[in-house]
Predict the 3D structure of the following.
Amino acid sequence: MPVQIKICGLSTPETVEAAIAAGATHIGLNLYPPSPRYVPLERAVELRELARGRIATVLLLVNADPEATAQAIAMVTPEIVQFHGRETPDWCALVREQAGIEVWKALGVQDSGSLERSAAYAGKVDRLLFDAPAKAMPGGTGETFSWELLQGHVHRTPWGLAGGLTPANVAQAIRQTGAPLVDTSSGVETAPGIKDVDLIRAFCKAAREASRAE
């Protein structure tokens, strides 16, 4: 099956259009205010409308309270909510049930124990995103983790690979891990939060070609 491609942290109509034209399957809209990729809720609604029916929209939330979570989902109406903070398996399952929406959870991978602990989300979320460990900011660090940790791991939940993926390394990442979905943000930027149309195109091309070679 062709690899799915998510371009996260988009903030302009031009980059949404670039992701669609390049063959991405998902875009991500970041509602976490400290992030350089943050978009206000009203902008997220506008970008969602541009994408509607053309590409799946993933709404990224970090430790949002119940009221803010409900408001964001109601206003943006994304296909998917991605939690990228300390959200528990039970909280993810509750949002999934109450909102009737697909839920993803990003998890930082430090060692094999991180993967073992991810089993707690089985049956609670629709997809796990294995990412580099969080630092000052959850995600968008531009750093990878040791992909060897994923080799031989038995996945109980559909998953994807994030963390430091770029046009230069995404093919290797796919070959080495067999990732069914790859997610990039800082890897297609010229500066924090500034997406580059050519890099988006190059990332999608490299991912598709690696997927066809599998």
User: Anything to note?
Assistant: The chain has a mean pLDDT of 93.
